[in-house]
Amino acid sequence: MDVRTLLLQQWASCLDKEDWFPPLEKVLKDVSFEQAIWKPVEGGMHSIWELVCHLLFYEKRYLMRFMGETENEPQADNNDSTFRLPTKTVENWEKTKLEYFSVHRELEEILAKSEHEDLFRQVPGEDQPLVLELKSLAMHDAYHIGQIVFLSKLQGAWPEKRSF
């Protein structure tokens, strides 16, 4: 098995293929707007929506850098500002989810089409080649997916027996 195949499996497990943890697409499927903005205590934890915005920020930034479109990459003053929400509406919650799914899939397509040399190409603005950056992004996603599941459980919104 080659490194691309391993990374594709890891990348898919973050979005739509269950492995050791539930994939984000299924985790977010029935999360309502109210559940998405809920926090157990103000200032103590991020909301589900804030976590999705954070994941989207880093994946979109990496995609733009990989594509050489650094003028279009999202900007943030610091890591805390990557959790910033757009205007809190149901439509924007749905739009954030769909954009995240789209960017994640676009990165997956790039990975699937990459030749061995491409996987180890240095991406401008990044410290590591594609293969290591996507591995790190997948681990980052998995970490925050766990937080999202935890927030769902705190709200009583996590099913006792899940279907996936």
Automatic annotation (TrEMBL):
<dbReference type="InterPro" id="IPR024775">
    <property type="entry name" value="DinB-like"/>
</dbReference>
<dbReference type="InterPro" id="IPR034660">
    <property type="entry name" value="DinB/YfiT-like"/>
</dbReference>
<dbReference type="Pfam" id="PF12867">
    <property type="entry name" value="DinB_2"/>
</dbReference>
<protein>
    <submittedName>
        <fullName>DinB family protein</fullName>
    </submittedName>
</protein>
<feature type="domain" description="DinB-like">
    <location>
        <begin position="24"/>
        <end position="148"/>
    </location>
</feature>
